[in-house]
Structures are given as structure tokens and as C-alpha cells.
Design goal:
alpha/beta; globular; Rossmann fold; binds NADPH dihydro-nicotinamide-adenine-dinucleotide phosphate; 9 helices; binds ligand LOHRUJSQ; 7 strands
């Protein structure tokens, strides 16, 4: 790990700032998303915010939503200061279907329609599965599976009713080899992946594409929810032996939503340094029984 990375980790300065994102080189043409309208859940921070910055830089109109209104407004102000673009914000929880319906109505009304929904809202806590309480299990499944589903269905119904196409990108997690110490989130994310594949088929006749994106360990302020010792281990948990950044994810989302992805649906795009193939990923540390086994 470089000195700068160590310093940032110690100060808990995770991830690219909005000015970093506004200046970051991109592979995309400046007006790739001109005229496109995006709703991004979890857009007040991390991967959602990076996607919002890239989208406005490429000419899109954007609304971001999440639970914390102040965080959303701060992100919007920073984005306007760094890029000149004004974005809309809505405080809500994706766990409440009525709040989801309201934010979706606002997005369609205030953006004048919607072309893409990016579901980046989510989270969990590390725990041995055997110790999970019903409340803890339900909180994680309700957020990551049910909440994502409410958003997907609400957008799809409006696209169907208006007779217009749409695109959904669901940000999940790397689940191919399970996520020990996070079985609740592995179950919820696996649910989202196969939900996405299922409705990608059902909704293809409606012109709605549905894809999922599996990040590996990505430097975002969301990592502040976890102990530093855990994060230094997780950063080593892929064959590239480092974390990714939010630009990696934002460019992946744009690939899927823009015309570059017009023949892609039901896909799971892995942006994780190969984490689905190799790595030791025990958030709470390798248990005694697996030490020295390569587990
Ligand atoms: C675990 C790591 C897997 C590998 C990936 C590592 C890299 C991943 C990074 C990210 O995902 S970055 C994004 C990070 N952001 C978050 O994770 C968000 C943090 N948490 C939340 O949003 C929410 O707390 C929640 C996890 C969705 C829970 O929602 P809710 O607000 O309804 O729940 P709480 O009231 O907080 O708790 C309900 C219930 O859940 C149990 N519980 C919650 N936190 C913990 C904890 N840290 N340890 C153990 N158990 C926990 C507990 O039973 C709670 O009930 P009470 O005890 O409070 O009655
Ligand atoms: N960073 C990483 O290494 C990895 C992250 N992920 C997942 O990727 C996604 C993006 O994470 P990342 O950007 O890193 O983390 P962040 O914590 O920065 O982003 C998650 C966002 O979700 C929002 N959110 C959480 N719960 C709800 C809810 N009930 N309703 C509405 N919004 C909600 C949060 O905002 P607010 O608090 O305002 O509601 C927050 O802005 C998450 O699903 C995360 O779990 C998966 C694998 C690895």
C-alpha cells in the first residue's frame, strides 16, 4: 500500500471527493448522456455520488435519494460547485413502498421522465450468521433486497404505463463464493442478481433492460462503518491485492445505462479486481478452523 493510501486510511478519508471526481479523466465522450434522466438511490455518497458526478459531466439530468437529507443536499452543493450542474435531491427510505412511489413520481415529474434507475442504496454489518437476530436479518434483507425491488418495480410500472423504454442498474456485492460473516447481505444480493435476471426477460418486451453490477472492495466513505483492521484485510481479498475506486464503478454503471449497453440485459458486471475468483474474504478475520488452509 502506498503512503498516501495508508494516511487516508488512518484519517478515514475514504474515497474520491467530489472535486476529485469532477476532474477525473473519463473514457466517455462529453455529451454521451445528453438528454438522459437518471434517478440514483444512495446518491449522497460513495458509488452513487460518483455516478451522479459522471452522469452530469456527460450531460444527464440527475435526482439522488437516500435517508439523510443533509447528506444529499451537501452532495448536491458540492456537485454544483465542482461541475456547475444542479441536481435534485429527495430524502426517503427505499424500505417504504409509499416513499418509493413518491420519489418515483417526483423523478418522473421534475426530470420530465426517467431513462435510468441506479440502485446504489444498501449496507450491512459483519456478524457470524449463527448470531444473527431476526431483527438484524430483516433489516439487511429489507434494505438490500426488498428496497431494491420496490425501486425497480415502481420505475418499471411507470415506464410500462408511459410506453417508454428504461434501464436499471442494481449495485450488489461479490457473492460468487458466498460472503462468510455477512450471510444476510450475501442472501439479499443473490436475490437481487436473480431478480434482475428474471425481470430482464419479463420486461424485455417493454424495452426495459435490467443489469447488476458487483463491486469488490471499493474505497468509499461507507467503509467508515467498518473497523480499519477489517478493511486492510478486505483490500487484499482479490488477486489484484488492492481496493477499487468509485470511478471504476461509475464508468461501469454508465457503460450499462448508455447506448454502449443497448444489447446488454440480465448481466452481472463484476468490477472487483477478480475477487469472484480468488481471495480470502472473512470480514471478522479468518476463524481458527480455517487458518493456514488458504481459506
Ligand atoms: C460486512 C462486510 C461484507 C463485506 C463487504 C465489505 C465492504 C462493504 C462495504 C459496504 O457495503 S459500504 C456501505 C456501508 N454502509 C453500511 O453498511 C450502512 C450501515 N448500516 C445501515 O445502513 C443499517 O444499519 C442496516 C445495516 C441496513 C440496518 O438497518 P436499520 O437501521 O433498520 O437497523 P438498525 O436499527 O441499525 O439495527 C437493526 C438490527 O440489526 C442488528 N444490527 C445492526 N447493526 C449491527 C451491528 N453492527 N452488529 C450486530 N448487529 C447489528 C441488530 O440486531 C439491530 O437490532 P437492535 O439490536 O438495534 O435492536
Ligand atoms: N464499498 C464497498 O466496498 C462495497 C459496497 N457495496 C454496496 O454498494 C452500495 C454502495 O455502497 P458505497 O457507495 O460503498 O457506500 P455508501 O454508504 O457511501 O452508500 C450507500 C448509500 O445507501 C444509502 N442508503 C442506505 N440505506 C438506505 C435506505 N434504507 N434508503 C435509502 N438510502 C439508503 C445511504 O445513504 P443514507 O445513509 O443517507 O440513507 C448511502 O448513501 C451499497 O449497497 C453497499 O453495501 C458492496 C460491496 C462492497
Amino acid at each position: 500500500m502506498t503512503d498516501i493510501r495508508t494516511e487516508r486510511m488512518e484519517k478515514r478519508l475514504w474515497g474520491l471527493s467530489v472535486p476529485d471526481l469532477a476532474a477525473h479523466p473519463t473514457v466517455y465522450a462529453p455529451d454521451l448522456l445528453k438528454g438522459q434522466r437518471l434517478l440514483i438511490s444512495g446518491g449522497g455518497s460513495g458509488m452513487g455520488r460518483a455516478t451522479a458526478v459522471l452522469a452530469v459531466r456527460l450531460g444527464a439530468e440527475v435526482m439522488i435519494c437516500g435517508r439523510d437529507g443533509e447528506k444529499l443536499d451537501r452532495a448536491a452543493e458540492e456537485i454544483e460547485r465542482a461541475t456547475g450542474a444542479r441536481i435534485l435531491t429527495r430524502a426517503m427510505t427505499i424500505r417504504d413502498p409509499e416513499q418509493v412511489s413518491a420519489v418515483m413520481d417526483d423523478a418522473f415529474d421534475e426530470l420530465g421522465g426517467l431513462d435510468a434507475l441506479v440502485n446504489s442504496a444498501g449496507g450491512q454489518f459483519p456478524i457470524e450468521a449463527i448470531d444473527l437476530t431476526p431483527k438484524g436479518w430483516n433489516a439487511v434483507v429489507d434494505t438490500n433486497l426488498n428496497g431494491t425491488w420496490h425501486m425497480m418495480q415502481a420505475a418499471a410500472r411507470r415506464w410500462r404505463d408511459a410506453g417508454v423504454p428504461g434501464s436499471i442498474v442494481n449495485i450488489v456485492a461479490t457473492i460468487d463464493r458466498g460472503i462468510p460473516h455477512s450471510a444476510h447481505t450475501a442472501a439479499a444480493r443473490a436475490g437481487v442478481v436473480y431478480l434482475s435476471k428474471s425481470v430482464a426477460v419479463e420486461w424485455a418486451p417493454l424495452g426495459i433492460r435490467v443489469n447488476a453490477l458487483a463491486p469488490g472492495t471499493i474505497e468509499t466513505e461507507g467503509l467508515n462503518n467498518y473497523p480499519p483492521a477489517m478493511l486492510s484485510r478486505l483490500g487484499q481479498g482479490n488477486p489484484m491485492r488492492r481496493m477499487g475506486d468509485t470511478w471504476d464503478i461509475a464508468e461501469g454503471v454508465v457503460y450499462l445505462t448508455a447506448s454502449s449497453g443497448k444489447f446488454v440485459t440480465g448481466e452481472l458486471l463484476q468490477i472487483n479486481g477478480g475477487m469472484h475468483l480468488w481471495g480470502t474474504n472473512w470480514p471478522l478475520g479468518v476463524p481458527e478452523s480455517f487458518r493456514g488452509t488458504g481459506g
